[in-house]
Amino acid sequence: MNGNWAAVMVAMTCIGCAGRKAAGPTLSPQERSRALYEVDRQFARLAAEQGAARAFQQYADGQSLRLNPVGPNVVGRDALVAELRDLPAGGLTWVPRFAEAAVSGELGWTWGDYVVRGPQGERRGRYVTVWRMTPVGWRIAGDIGTAAP
After folding, report:
1. How much of the chain exceeds pLDDT 90, in percent?
2. Which residue range is the domain that position 45 belongs to?
């Protein structure tokens, strides 16, 4: 029985490791944070040039969540894109101000300032985006914005 138990444990360990990304070059915490900052800058550039819906389509996935201050939260890429599709390119823009990635490289967060331009005028505020590393790169785990006073 002990031999079977050991085999099960080895198999479970291998299965758990199989889903992990192969280790690449080791980055310092500062390099990881700079890389995540650049991801948010690229995300913002895409929104400014091609629209927020296109940007969220690229950087969100089925688990991405946007917390709304009022009403239901928005969950998943399709829901995020649907909510943003009427905004023209440049309708939602933002500038990242800070990024920090975990030493493990699996999670990180960015914050910055945003502007929404629409028929009712311009609204400004700050945002926080939590990112998670996936096999295809950084994807939005959670996003929340707060309006400026």
Report:
1. 72
2. 30-147
Strands 65-67 and 137-147: parallel
Q: What is the mean pLDDT of the chain?
A: 85
- Asked if residue 17 is part of any domain, the answer here is no
For 81, residues 6+ apart whose C-beta sits below 8 A from its C-beta are: 53, 56, 57, 60
Note whether residue 92 is domain-resident.
Answer: yes
Q: In this structure, which amino acid lies at residue 113?
A: D
User: Please, is 129 exposed, middle or buried when counting C-beta atoms within 10 Å of its C-beta (0-12, 13-18, 19+)?
Assistant: buried
Q: Tell me: the pLDDT tens digits for 112-141?
A: 999 999 888 999 999 999 999 999 999 999
The answer to the question of residue 123 being in a domain is: yes
Cα(28)–Cα(145) distance, integer angstroms: 29
Q: What is the pLDDT of residues 100-109, one digit of tens each?
A: 999 999 999 9
* Overall number of domains in the chain: 1
- The CATH number given to whatever domain includes residue 127 is 3.10.450.50
